[in-house]
Amino acid sequence: MTEREILSQPTVWRQALELDTSVPAFGRRGERVLFLGCGTSAYVSESIAALRETAGHGTTDAGYASEWLPGRMYDRIVVISRSGTTSEVLAVLEQVPSGTATTAIVGVEGSPVAAAVDQALVLDFADESSVVQTRFPSTVLVLARRAFGEELTDLAAQCEAALTRPLPVRVADHSHFVFLGRTWTRGLAQEAALKVREAAQAWSEAYPALDYRHGPIAVAGAGSLVTLFGDLDSALAADVRRTGAEVLHHDVDPLIQLALAQMLAIRLAEERGLDPDSPRHLTRSVVLS
């Protein structure tokens, strides 16, 4: 999770939007599709599922590869794995029922996951050296949104502009970080919280925005920073401020909000004297013996 890789995202997004692919990485219209991944890829899967159903492309589910069991029938199962070596993803592919199409979205050409599916979308230009993912998952989401009919021509330029501005909060003033999202931005909120945990070893949480009042808000207070993804919910923001917490909302596209959350995680890691590119107990890929 280097600052260079965060700042490179707009360039990588432009390259992705120029990509011409026939791989049905996000399902064909009308197919019943399941998206699976681990960690960041599970959160990306959740966001894609919400985007796909909202766009009217068909029934779409998402889940953790580590928790999946055969049962429900799908026309296609799509697995997401930056390294293409994740053990739980490979275990899923060994159990897919005959007749179900399989697709993988990976960052490495010729990886075991890519070799185990019918078709693979290889985003090697979006791969990154860091243990902590940033530009690979965001690029997958850019391609998903394009596939579902969104116009994203100005997204990269808007992100470049946003990343040049200083963060509007002092990270040193906070010890508790909460990220809230609705519909497809719930996955982004979870990913942002994960970045703070991975890079800065900090207390971070993520919830569906409107569910935050149903319990989790009880631990908010002075020292809490609550970030709202998607459109600003003024009533929710007011309720959060009454706890003494600070509310953060960037009035930009949700993917740019994610990039700014990544930058916040780096600044927090630096404040704590940590290397955000070398998180404790983590490796680039989880390969089980």
Could you describe the 3D structure shown?
The chain has 289 residues and is an alpha/beta fold. It folds into two domains: 145 residues, Glucose-6-phosphate isomerase like protein, domain 1 (Rossmann fold); 107 residues, Glucose-6-phosphate isomerase like protein, domain 1 (Rossmann fold). Helices cover 37% and strands 16% of the residues. It contains ten helices and nine strands. The chain has a five-stranded parallel beta sheet with strand order 2-1-3-4-5, with helices on both faces. The protein has a four-stranded parallel beta sheet with strand order 7-6-8-9, with helices on both faces. Helix 3 links the parallel strand 1 and strand 2. Helix 3 runs parallel beside helix 6 and helix 7 packs parallel to helix 10. The longest helix is centred in the C-terminal third of the chain and has 18 residues. It is globular. The chain starts with a helix and ends in an 18-residue tail after the last helix. 50% of the residues are buried. The model has no long low-confidence stretch (mean pLDDT 93).
